[in-house]
Amino acid sequence: MEKRNYILPFIMLAVFETVAVTLWLTKDNLFYLFNFSYIGISISLGMFLYIRKYKYARRIVQLLVGLYMLIYLGVICNENMQIEGFWYYLFTGVFEAATIHYAVAKIFGPLLFGRGWCGYACWTAMILDFLPYKVPAQPRKKIGWIRYITFAASLIFVAALFLAKAGNMERIMFWAFVIGNIAYYGVGIALAFAFKDNRAFCKYICPITVFLKPMSYFAMIRVTCDKEKCVSCGKCKKVCPMNVNVTDNSRNRENGTECILCMECVRNCPKNAL
Ligand code: SF4
Ligand code: SF4
Ligand code: SF4
């Protein structure tokens, strides 16, 4: 591995530190310094390990960031980091961690890094990726429309709380976070076994993909294929957890907005064509 590649983790760390210090000073809140420094260090460490060809680099980042958001921000700080929390803070006009998190990771960030969130940070997938079906054992189902129902349900749930002028909203949102996560894990694990596919929940149910898919269509960072080197062996498609037709370089490629940048295709290509 070339030495200059090691610069990338430092650039990433510098970007996160800039955001951390800027938000800390402008908002006079030390939390932002800690939060963005922690995430920056975790991602940079993962990039460093990936460059070192460490097999579990992605999983380490996923656990470091996912557990931090689930346990620290969600359970300890009582921030509802799920989509209901995003609607809630949006309606109240409060610029909290959940709003920043959605804007950075799930709405505008995907224009740059696609669905990197899904590969490296999501605490739901962090657990699902421990299950045995890393590569889907069945063809993809045509039930992706379910995501629009879960998306609408999350919005209706929060809107109804506001319309009903429910008391103690903070407490309701905390329990919505706990119960919502338990439901996501339950459904995600059941679907993974039913469809023999760890990422079935991501493909058919997850409401956040309503934001993620259209934005990641325009992603600047994406895996592309060098047609000169490719020998059409098909290995990349066999190992892809998201059924992406990665040898097609067009934006419209099959399941192109599903790529989670896990790099399994890149690692397994015998010709270094990706
Ligand atoms: S699709 Fe949803 S559940 Fe799956 S990794 Fe992305 S955000 Fe997480
Ligand atoms: S694994 Fe590499 S060589 Fe094989 S089809 Fe994919 S890109 Fe081409
Ligand atoms: S295997 Fe390649 S195409 Fe498939 S999700 Fe991972 S990075 Fe994307």
Distance between the termini: 16 Å
Task: List bound small molecules.
Answer: iron/sulfur cluster
Number of domains: 3
Average of per-residue pLDDT values: 91
Specify the structural class: mainly alpha
Q: Categorize the overall geometry.
A: globular
Major sheet attributes: none
In terms of DSSP E residues, the strand content is: under 5%
| N-to-C SSE string, H for helix and E for strand | HHHHHHHHHHHHHH
Low-pLDDT residue intervals, each spanning 5 or more residues = none
What's the number of extended β-strand segments? 0
Helix amount: 55-70%
Structural Rg: 19 Å
Query: Number of helical segments?
Result: 14
Brief description of this entry?
The protein is an all-alpha fold. Helix content is 61%, strand content 0%.
Any overview of this molecule?
With 274 residues, the protein is mostly helical. It has three domains: 1-54; 77-216, no CATH class; 223-274, Alpha-Beta Plaits (2-Layer Sandwich), CATH 3.30.70.20. It has 14 helices and no strands. The chain has helices at residues 7-27, 30-51, 57-76, 83-92, 97-108, 110-113, 116-120, 123-128, 146-163, 169-194, 200-204, 209-216, 235-239, 264-268. It is globular and about 60 Å long. The mean pLDDT is 91. The protein binds iron/sulfur cluster (3 copies). Residues 225, 230-236, 247, 269, 271, 273-274 line the site of one iron/sulfur cluster.
